[in-house]
C-alpha cells in the first residue's frame, strides 16, 4: 500500500536535471505518511534499533516531527524506507560520534565542539549560494587534506555536521544536495579509503539527504583508481549520481553550466565568483548557537 500511494503521488511528475522526482507535498500527504512512518518504525526489530531506542531515552528533544520528516522527504515519502533509514541513522551516528557525543545536538558547542579547527581547514564547505532549484551546494577540496592536522574521526564528524547544516534548509530537504568534488591538486597519498567508507555509507543509508549529484571536477590521473572505489561504496543507485568533468577550466565551467551551476554559484577554485570564507561561516554559526 505504501508503494502504491507513493507512486500515485509521483505519477505525472517529470524528472529534474539529475533524474530525480519530487512529490508535491500537501498537509494530507505529510499527515498520512507520518502515521505510516511510526507504524513502520514499530515493525523494525528491536535488535536493529538499539541506538534509536537509546536516543529516545537520552535525547527525546532531538526526535521532533520535523526531524523525522527529513527522512520521509529523503525517501520520497516511502514510509518503510524512511523508518529503516531513521533506525540506521542512529547506529551510524553512534559509530561516527561515539556514545559520549552521539546524543548531543550536532552543533559547534555540542557534539562538534572539538572539531572547529578541522572545519576551518576547509576540506569540506557549505556554500551560501544554492543552485537554481534551491539545492544546497557542498564543496569538497580534496587537496586540503592533511592528516597531521586532524584525525579521520574528526573529519568524519565534520562531514556529518556540514551535511546537517545543509538540510537545515527545507528546500534542500526536498530537492537534494549537490556535491562539488575538486581533486585536481590532490596527491595519491591524500586518498583515504577509510574516510571514503565513512562518507559514502553515511550518505547511502543514514543522513537524511538526497544526493542529487557528485560532480568530480578535473580529477588527476590516479582518480581512475579512486572513483571505482567511491562507486562501489555508494552502491548501484547512488553511483548514477556521479559525473566526472575532465579537461580545462573553461570546459569544466561549460559542463557545470548545463546543470545550472553558473559562475555566480561556484567557488573561485573552480573558476567561479565565490570566495569561500570558512572562518566567517564558523563564527556566524557559533554566534547563532548552531
TrEMBL record:
Domain CRAL-TRIO: 114-278
GO cellular component labels: membrane
InterPro entries noted in UniProt: CRAL-TRIO_dom, CRAL-TRIO_dom_sf
GO molecular function: phosphatidylinositol bisphosphate binding
Protein name: CRAL-TRIO domain-containing protein
Native source species: Phaeodactylum tricornutum (strain CCAP 1055/1)
